[in-house]
Amino acid sequence: MKKLLFLLLFTVVQFTFAQELALVKEGKNFGYINKSGSYAIEPKFKNAKNFSDGLAAAIEGKKWGFIDKTGNWVIQPDFDDVKYFDSGICVVAKDKKWFYINKKGAVVEMPASDKPFDFEDGVAFIKRGEKTGLINAKGQIILESEYEMIKPFQDGFARIKKNGKWGIVSKAGKFVIKPEYDDIGEYYQNLTWAQKGTTFGIVKGDKFKEIEGAEKVWDFLFQNLTYAKKGDKLGFIDTNGNWVIEPKFDKVRAFNKNLAPVAVGKKWGYINTKGEMVIEPQFNDADVFSDDGLAPVKEKNWGFIDTSGKLVIPADYEITAGGLFSLFRKNDKGFINGLSRVKYKKGWGFIDKKGNILGDKWYDQVELFQKVGK
After folding, report:
1. pLDDT per residue over 117-160, tens digit each?
2. Rounded CA gap, 230 and 314, in Å?
3. What's the rounded Cα separation, in Å, for the pair 243 and 236?
4. CA-based end-to-end distance of the chain
5. Which of 118, 169, 278, 328 is 20 to 30 A (C-alpha) from 263?
6. Beta-carbon contacts of residue 289 (< 8 Å; ≥ 6 apart)
7. How confident is the model at residue 19 (pLDDT cuts 50, 70, 90)?
């Protein structure tokens, strides 16, 4: 029975891993590796992009097309330039014209826009003159082109500007916060921070609560705490706009795993949610803990500590926050699902939480693992 359970678990793990590939460059060519560190698609492309919506763009000759997770062409290389698929739609260029195609390579007509914008999370901008609106992947207009600016969607919500004022809109085109603020943050668990004149506060629905003395506020990211500035110091507020850690630091970063990096003089350590220093300032730099429970810290180079402050992976690496050809907006430093992208000497690769090198191999470039579908 134990053997059968092990085999079933191994099969599930292998199946899961098989659904994630990372773009790598070895020598002059690009290919894709799986989470065992083996090539799923051999490096045979002079240029290629990340998988997105189950397909990846690659070049044959001088033209771009799209491959599946086996490396076979799904859409033949016939385009001068391409973007990324989302919700079955992609922006491509041919003969100096940009347009939309579907996953069969057929042209898709969309509402008139000064230019086609990428779909992200099922929506795309349309622009007419100086005004911006939104469409969905079916070509339906969600918001008419009457807004000065719409920021990219994050977790289904976007900041939007009308008549000089900012609000928050959902992908369905519904306002969750009316555009009546001079500045506004990303939407997080049904709230955000906003600015009215020189006053900063927390907004929930149509209610604005002032944050006493705040001169600047940063977005909530991982926990119900974020940092804010008062005078020339930084502290932390909760989602009710209350100061929970008084502003006394020169530099801080976000809480995760109930720990936040803070600078004291020129050295970085970590505080807990009571503001107590639990990992003494000793590092030249430090970043946020990942959900995997490790945080990047810098001595001469970068290594990783656990939540007790123990250096569990030696400081032998360089790290990055976005990669060399990434489409991502979020901070990609540190561990993601058990692996971290690092640079050692002149090569890039992945290490696991014990510091083992994935596939025992370094590459000229690597990108984060992406799901490629079943």
Report:
1. 999 999 999 999 999 999 999 999 999 999 999 999 999 999 99
2. 36
3. 6
4. 28
5. 328
6. 256, 257, 259, 295, 307, 334
7. confident
- Tell me the pLDDT tens digit for each residue of 266-321: 999 999 999 999 999 999 999 999 999 999 999 999 999 999 999 999 999 999 64
Contacts of 219 (CB under 8 A, 6+ apart): 185, 186, 188, 192, 193, 226
Q: What is the pTM of this model?
A: 0.87
Distance, in Å, from the CA atom of 19 to the CA atom of 70, rounded to the nearest integer, reads: 11
Token duo for residue 324: 């060399």
Please report, as a single letter, which amino acid is at residue 338: G
